[in-house]
């Protein structure tokens, strides 16, 4: 009958690193929100939306996943990667820029990197 000659579908490979990075994102934001030196910390969104027939881009390439402020007023920028994730050049440049002007910026994959 129909489909008798069709091959079976190949199994879909799970993207394990995406799940690990999502877990890292959640863990790091919780650690930042409870850290005694952090005044506030939030996730930074990046995306596009159609407005008036045109696409508008929000955010900027390389900006960190987590942005916040320390209780002493300094900017906080945290790029979160899964255990095997690597910084892209524009992400490393952003972290360097924040540090150069007195902010605190680092890469974290889990809670211990925050403390």
Automatic annotation (TrEMBL):
<dbReference type="GO" id="GO:0003676">
    <property type="term" value="F:nucleic acid binding"/>
</dbReference>
<dbReference type="InterPro" id="IPR011856">
    <property type="entry name" value="tRNA_endonuc-like_dom_sf"/>
</dbReference>
<protein>
    <submittedName>
        <fullName>VRR-NUC domain-containing protein</fullName>
    </submittedName>
</protein>
